[in-house]
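Before relying on records like the one below, remember that each one covers exactly one chain. Contacts with other chains, cofactors or solvent are not represented anywhere in the record.
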Amino acid sequence: MNKLKTNASGKTGVAPDLPADFGMLAAHGDFATGTHTAKTGDLIMPDLVRAATYTAMQAGRTPSDEGWFTGGERVGYDPRARAIVAAQNAPLKIFLRREGELAHAVSFLPGFPDGSFGWAKVQPHLPNAAEMPRLFVEYVGMGDSDKPKDYTYSTAERTDLVEAIWRDLSVRSTTLVAFDFSSLVVLEHLRRRLERAERGEPAGGPDIRGVFIFNGGLFTDGHSHPWYTTPVLRRLPNRARRGLGGSFALFKMMVGVMWSKGYRVTDAEVRELHSALDRHDGLFYLAAAAGFDADHKTQGDRLDFGRLFKAYRDQFPFVVGGSDEDPFEHRQVDLAEERLGKLGLRIERLPGGHLTTHEQPEALAALIAEFEEGLQWAEGDRQCS
């Protein structure tokens, strides 16, 4: 088990505490204390701008939220058909970002609430796309995807989307890299494969080389979300959801818990996160999708990581990791090590808070790259034997 040291970022200090009256504000739904500007419509940028953005990223500079989304595309999606469709007149448009040859791409699944933009700081530290082709997925309601307010957000619909993207892009094999609540999408897909096999149906997805989960939910008894975060947000009435994020100061207090106490979060970082969430008037998603841990608990037996690990551990390897100061899922890694460590589950830990993608992007990228490289070597050995 490797434990990587914090790289010298020069950022120290204490993140702001939540105000004492936060619970009262949440209970009364009085979040609408300011105004915000909605960003709507498709991104239409010249190819030269896209190329310049990509070149800047390859040079090692982290893209802004605008640069990140400019480097991807919006494609049509029909949730009823569970299929990618022509963008023109599509019921919804979702964002995705592809780099390299996708037949054997690594699938990067997003965290909550930052979505695919959470990978923006990690991406420059990954091997180039020729060595590690990758696909960054954005769910409905996040980032530059459409954000319908009359939509049933759930683990199941997110899994439907991922499977539809794989089919449309003809992904033949993949390594699943999941951050935060996307762990549940991985568990849902793995369970579906077992259920489909029992019915004599195709797997419904590409061959899986390996599974890498960081700061994600694994066991129903391992969730430790602070009461003033998702437990409060998921109970907000629709009227209150529409005002989420209207006050930048309150938004900063709300999301401050995601960083470690030793990481001084700058206003620029928080504003960039706010901007990524607010695209297409989407800050309501903070509440609309906040029930994912409750969703997990209602399907405890079906989406139990221990059972799924035992079902698949002879087919492909797993890595489960967590941050030392993650207030949301810190118990998950301890439970995984306690329950499955003797069965060969690999455990990794990194310093910092929940947003490892922000605080430890280089270290996280190194773990992912090392895991994928090992899978490639193992595949090469199998082909030679």
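Residues 1-60 have pLDDT under 50 and may be disordered.
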